[in-house]
Amino acid sequence: MKKGYLVSALLIPGLLLAACGENNGNENAGGNENPGNDENVEAGGELVVYSARNETFVQDLLDKFEDETGIEVLALHSAEPLQIQEEAGNVQADVFISNDLGGLEYLNQEGLLVGGDYDNVDSIAEEYRAENNEWIALSSRARGFIYNKDMIDEADVPQSMEDLFDPSFADVENGYAITRGGNGGMIGNVSALRYEWGDDRTQEWIEAIQENASGIMQGHGDIRRAVGAGEHSFGLVNNYYFHQQLEEPDNNNVGFIYPDQEDGQMGAITNAAGLGNVADGPNSDNAEYFINWLLEEENQLAFVGESLEVPINPDLEPPFEDAVPIAELTLQDMPLAELGNYFQDTRSLIEDAGLDLELR
Amino acid sequence: MTNRRDGHHQEKTNTEDGKVEDRRSSTLLRVMNRWWMDIWKGNPPGPVLLIIGVITAILMSVPILYVIWRAMFAGLDSWQRLLGDRIPGLIWDTLSLMVAVTVAAIIIGVSLAWIVVRTDLPGRKWWQWLMALPLVIPPYVGAVTYIIVFGPSGWARDLWESSFLMALSDYPINIYSFWGVFMTLTLFTYPYVFLIAGASLRKMNKSFEEVARSQGMSTSQIFFKVNLPLLRPAIGAGAILISLYVLSDFGAIAMLRYVTFTAAIYYQRAGFDIPAASVLSLVLIVITVIILWIESYTRRKNKYYQTTNSYKAPDILPLGRWKPVAVFYVGLVFTVAVILPISVLIYWTAIGAGAGAIDNRFFGFAWNSIRVSGLAAIISMLLATPIIYLKSRHPSVISSTIDKLSYGGYALPGVIVALGLVFIFNNHIPMLYNTFYMIAIAFVVRFLPQAMQAGDASLSLVSPRMDEAARSLGYPAWKVMFKVVLPTIMPGVLAGGALVFVSSIKELPATLMLRPPGFDTLAVRVYYEASEAIYHQAAPGALLIVLVSIIPLHYLLKKY
Question: Among B437, B447, B514, B535, which would you mutate to test the A interface (most chain A Cβ atoms within 10 Å of its Cβ)?
């Protein structure tokens, strides 16, 4: 009985709205301003994209796809991998774009992604793809420290992740900045440390940065702007945020440290951005179409786009001059797909420390 | 409903002897009927009206009940982990902010009300509505403007560092702190107290003060011993609005990087830690209920009567040598809470317009805002009218329960309503999940009471005699409703719709949580662009929201 009430309670307004909804749909079509534009016969309909990346990196790419194919892209930015899991019984997304291969591989292990055979997929090395191309990485990044050259000498910036255990970094001018623990980049960073150090030491590290950081922000864009403007001496970001800050008209006197490059150190922590094909998505044909399109070299570059990351496809020139090819760095030896095994526990570790809810 | 009970009864007795059953059932029917009539005091509503009322009440309360239910099954470890570390800290951060903002807003609101109503402040008539203006600036928009002005890279720091002050100390303001949040929320919520206290100061009877003065009390003694006690109900009403607002705010708090329960619930749900989000929601629900209970308790204990038959308007007190101080104070609050934010918005809107920020995309977002808010307003008007009619013409336990349940979503933060709706739609009504109807329904649950209050006020002016007269001419109930009642209360219903529309267009947390892919509203864009520090993109939308929000101010000023 109760359920019946519930359903009718929710359906009645729904039905009331159905009329309005139809009306809206018509007006949308009417507002198209281009009456002849309706025959997207070959490729048409919609593509639902969930994206965990910064919207400014993704939106241009999606617009490009929409313009070239006529497929309408419905984007949900700042989505989380776990939303795909939550909606598994009622799949909404066709494609999930992520900064963190850990999240993608986690979804893959849960059976929420579907593989495929795409035209140009061989342009991406196998270690940057899931076994059956359930996810494919397209651009890579390394973690490191952006610093403000007016405030701190290069030598005084941390040279390794381990340095952050040292509370004296709390005393640099205006302190340093990190992101909230819920950030995908931070989750990948912590997973890499767990692979290297084990859980106890990693937990101590989280507690140390939580204690010592003077700024804890939602995203890395906040950090690069803050460091550039002198609000903090340095911040833990992905390398391309440094390149972005260099392109700013002002507040651009910044430098970057790739940590852990000495012999015997673990090497720079890397991660990649890429996308996964969501199993049973409502427009699975369009998802396949999108991935094929995206693997065209021109569009691989568009994916890297404004983010100033480095394309994973070695044939592609990085779209900006100052790129440090990842090949020249000493990298941590963890295979990136391994991040997927750490994903859930890393989140609990961060939560236990309380860093997921800390902002300052 | 009587039928159903009757059927139930028959089922129970159908094994017994037919005759006895017949007699019994008719007795029982009579008892039931009497009981039913008793509940309604001899005036039961028609079934359609009652069904609409019951359905609405369920719609309003189910999201919250669902959250509570999920919280209870969140699992012991979720509870333990949260109770151990999280919740005490969150309670402290949330309640200290709530108390500080409420106290400060009361002090500012009451003092301003007293100055502009009771003293010869120059331009006092103007100030009486100018000082209510911060109400049109949603606190998250205000927070953006304060970050632009006072933030670590703000205009104020530039000024400071280029002046002699730099030699004295570094720039001292940290907007991303308790004090930043405190200042922002105080300045954009004090008008609640200001409006209500101002209204009661205007109605205050002079005779009390004359008596006090004849006893040799000074003006300040009169204020504390006579005015203030009489203001207590007004202050209490304002305080409850402000406390509930602080508990529910998400946007301003998120932008200023402060974490309260509401923000924590939002982040937990964004990270899909659903058990944790529901546990935190349950705690927040309990806090809210406690506050509502304290309010009703104190209101019961403090009753102040004003005699109406010997009403004399109070004197306007001369400020004398305090005049410059009063002008400075009023001017300062006005500058910080109105001129500053509006100027910042206009400045960045101009830059944004130059940079092409007001493009097709912008109009798309505006259109999304309008249609989802418009839909919410229409549904609210449709649902509010039967409920207020039921409550006013058929008073009973049932109608007042329906009325109370309809207020559930209003008292609770949008994140909780949104959380409940996500659960329900994702698990039980997948068809509507991820459609913009979900947002509209959340708005209805949140803001239906605004429509009810506005309609209620108009309906109270329509005498039930009018209905009776129409009925006696042979009109059936529904015809009375449409021909007599509705036309009369239409202005009130529409005003209620306008209020819902305006509240909806600036609503942030539920919109963020429920928006389907490809559906952004102005509020969401303002939040996103501002948190990326792309102010020229954020400002036009924010300014539009502020302009739209002037509608309820007009309504509020008429009300108080």
Answer: B437
